[in-house]
Amino acid sequence: MENSTEIVSFVLAMYGNMGQLKYLYFTLALLFYVSVILANTVIIIIIYMNRNLHEPMYLFLCSL
């Protein structure tokens, strides 16, 4: 007898069958993504407009 494992299939089933909830999840993820992009844009604009914030720490925040 050998000690072996045989993998027949591999299924990525993280989301599975969500039915009508997939639209809700997509909308929530899209709103979150847009809010993150908007917040980052506001931070970059504030750092760009205010001359006192042109320091390495704030420029590093812009590059993130």
Description of the structure:
The protein is mainly alpha-helical and 64 residues long. The protein has one domain (13-62). The protein has two helices and no strands. It has helices at residues 21-49, 56-63. Helix 1 packs antiparallel against helix 2 (56-63). The longest helix is centred in the middle third of the chain and has 29 residues, at 21-49. It is elongated. The model has no long low-confidence stretch (mean pLDDT 81). Keywords: Cell membrane, G-protein coupled receptor, Membrane, Olfaction, Receptor, Sensory transduction, Transducer. This is G-protein coupled receptors family 1 profile domain-containing protein. One of its GO terms (biological process) is sensory perception of smell. One of its GO terms (cellular component) is plasma membrane.
Mean pLDDT: 81
The unreliable regions are none
Individual helix count: 2
Tell me, briefly, the overall form: elongated
Strand content: under 5%
Q: Domains counted in the coordinates: how many?
A: 1
Can you count the beta strands? 0
Order of helix and strand elements from N to C terminus: HH
Structural class: mainly alpha
What is the rounded Rg? 23 Å
What is the straight-line distance between the termini?
A: 56 Å
Instruction: Indicate the percent of residues in helices.
Output: 55-70%
Q: How would a crystallographer describe the biggest sheet?
A: none
